[in-house]
Write a structure and sequence with these properties.
Blueprint (H helix, E strand, L loop, with lengths): L1 H31 L11 H13 L6 H10 L10 H9 L12 E5 L4 E5 L5 E6 L7 E4 L2 E4 L5 E4 L2 E2 L3 E4 L2 E10 L2 E6 L12 E4 H9 L6 E5 L8 H14 L2
Parallel strand pairs: 1-12, 10-11
Antiparallel strand pairs: 1-2, 2-3, 4-5, 6-12, 7-9, 8-9, 9-10
Length: 245
């Protein structure tokens, strides 16, 4: 029996020694690895170059342009122009709208962005937005589901300036469905947080309102749902031609 115990001990020690040696080797490698070099800070010329490139691609200028880029590209939303973000901007290509060939506005619920498309079918502006949180709410004697509907809509009414709604103030709202609107708000989180409206930054609210006249086609979609507005655009074109003398 004693001999059997000695054999077992020898086997266990033999199995443990290679593991201990491997761990020691890895520890030694970690200690001797050279420290990482810090990324070179961006120069003022590079920062200007990045802003110009963002504007060229349709993200505009100012503090929201980088956020819109990060949202569209599926990057971590930081709003900070690091060396990594600079490289990504310079390597990126200009985004394309989901639907093309006519003037309209799109809201991508997955990316949380608004895309303004011009008459030529190209993107004119991309803005970060915050849409319905998809949570139940109960406040100010009202309750419901904070939901932004998917589908094809038209802007049917507009108000210049502030509008007091049952759930809060709306800045330059452009209405598209049952009191829901695209409007400016001081708070535009990176995630869906509204009661169902489409919040845009205050700095862009007036300009966007002016570019969304009554009748503008609005497409709201996610990965599971998309409806083209080309049929409506064709109807609008034919009506315009029939009105001409």
């Amino acid at each position: 029996m004693k001999s059997l115990k000695k054999v077992i001990v020898v086997l266990v020690v033999g199995l443990l020694l290679p593991t201990a040696s491997l761990a020691a080797s890895k520890s030694s490698q970690r200690k001797t690895s050279p420290p990482r070099a810090h990324a070179r800070a961006l120069s003022s010329a590079e920062r200007k170059q990045a802003q110009l490139r963002l504007a060229e691609m349709g993200y505009g200028s100012g503090s929201t342009s980088l956020i819109a880029f990060q949202k569209f590209e599926g990057r971590k939303v930081t709003g900070a122009l690091s060396r990594g973000e600079f490289d990504a901007i310079m390597a990126a290509t200009a985004p394309a709208p989901k639907d093309s060939g006519y003037r309209h506005v799109e809201v991508d619920l997955d990316r949380q962005i608004l895309v303004l498309v011009g008459d030529d079918g190209n993107i004119q502006k991309i803005l970060p937005v915050s849409t319905g949180s998809n949570r139940q709410y109960k406040e100010k004697r009202m309750s419901g589901l904070a939901y932004t509907p998917r589908g094809r809509f038209r802007i049917y009414a507009k108000i210049a300036g502030w509008r007091k709604s049952p759930l809060g103030l709306l800045y330059y709202p452009s209405y598209f469905s049952d009191g829901l609107a695209i409007h400016g708000n001081p708070s535009v989180p990176d995630t869906p947080q509204s009661h169902g409206c489409i919040r845009v930054p205050m700095s862009a609210a007036v300009a966007i309102s002016r570019q969304l006249p009554v009748g503008t086609i609005l497409l709201i979609y996610d990965q599971q749902s998309f409806v083209s507005g080309k049929a409506w655009a064709e109807e609008d074109r034919q009506k315009a031609e029939n009105r001409q003398p």
